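Translate sequence into structure tokens.
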Amino acid sequence: MSRTTSAASALDRRSLLAAAGAVGVSAGLGLAFGPAGGEAEASPPPRAGGAGQRAVRAAPGAPGRPAAPSTAGTTLRTVSAPRGTGGYRRLTGGPAWVRVVRTETAAAGSGREDRRTALASFVQFTDLHVVDVQHPLRYEYLRSRTASAWRPQEALSVAGAVSLVERVNSLRGGPVTGAPLSFVITTGDNTDNNSRTELDWFLTTMSGGRIVPNSGDPKVYEGVQDSGLRLYWQPDSAVRDSDKRLGFPRIEGFLDAAIRAVNSPGLRMPWYSTVGNHDSLPGGCYAPGRGFFADFAVGGRKLETLPEAEGAALWKAVKKGLDPAGENFQELLKKYAPKMRSVTPDPGRAPFTPREYLQAHLDPRYKGAGPVGHGYTAADLDAGRLYYTFRISDDVIGISLDSTDPGGHYEGSLGTAQLRWLERTLEQHRGDCALIFSHHTSASMRNLRPDPERPGEKRHGGDELVSVLKRHRNAVAWINGHSHMNRITPHGTFWEISTASHIDFPQLARIVELVDNGDGTLSLFTTLIESSAPYRTDFTDLSQTGLAALYRELSFNAPGTRSTLAGDPADRNTELLLKKP
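Result follows.
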């Protein structure tokens, strides 16, 4: 049966969002951790109070009383851009990104800005990849094959994520409607390697508290960046590594700073969680298990280099999903065990199961601004279910899906039980506008391997999910991540909004505002935001703020990073017109 949890809003007592934390959780549930297409009409960047920026009415149950809209803190005001020339480039504040009006699914009526009623206003985080860079199971040695295997900036992922939280806390409301932002939702890959340590860091970042982004030896960094290997940037060393040849700096004290404590204020608004493949699967691609991978993750050996031929074969297997259970990968690790680096074992690096993922979200330590469970409930724990619904406003329902295939591989799909649940939920809420959230995009849901726990259940891909959503006209948007790039795709009756990651440049999150134009159409306004870190960096400033700024600058300069991840203007700041269901 469909189940609805309620969000929270301290701004509007009339709102159904006021029921945050209403679901009781027993004290024993906590998990204790150790130590696109179409024509576009461009308009200039709007100014606060200008055309299209006036405050609008809030529908009953919508998130609070609108204020004067402001573009402050958004890419409608400014966005990071490189300065200078040459190899390693510094950043500065660059020209704003325009808002593009897209009319592939409905015409833009004149005067609609005077009739608008705000229905929802919230923020999407995606692909934070809060990462334990010292984790033994990481395959950084595939860097020459794929830029995603290892990034020069990733040791600073916690400082970068906290800076994004700080940005959201500073925003006054939606830049178009002025409606208070009522919640944040993550769309998966909250962690990088299915590690308990990473899960604790992610939950603390979102809910508030002190994080020490270090594992193994409590005083010393033990990873590829102090290995002396030229394959990786060695920031504290004089070694002429491959990154320094491109202009990367030497920053003495970088690694000590990277493992120092970081303090997160936590989000000041409710937040919800959606699961991704890096949350559920070791390495983001191998079927979970408690055997070899679990033992290796907590152990004292780490592989940091691999012969080119074997690296090529391993990457081919990962990319094509040829070894979903990781059996060949396990044999490779056993083969090279004598040549591995010795590191300090750490039980906190153990993989977490889906049940432990749910338990951690339900742990009162991570409640923050609520709701308890961040979308998940004790009933989900009992059922082993990682999908749910939640009430956004009187007229809008949110639906969070679990698109990871437990059979392995980084592409996704839905099992029959979840797909039928989605259909029932959309039908039962046909009087509401429905916003669907998942990690995978329609194009990356092609993995139809059976779930090992449900071998007789069919898996369903992105094309089938698109068909289901098109049959239910109340589905107005499908919001996701996974691809690490901005892309917005019309599907006739709804829009698919895919947002860039927060680990690769340009490290963006997205504000989404849903409004009723009062003329038979809806508009979805999307506005991208960066973290609160300053654009300019100082290599001697290794404070928490200084590290967050370096996180962005290093990500811009990371070799192999595609400049297309920001997407085209029509994939960034937009107004997406849609016929009202």
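Note: The CA atoms of residues 438 and 469 lie 13 Å apart.
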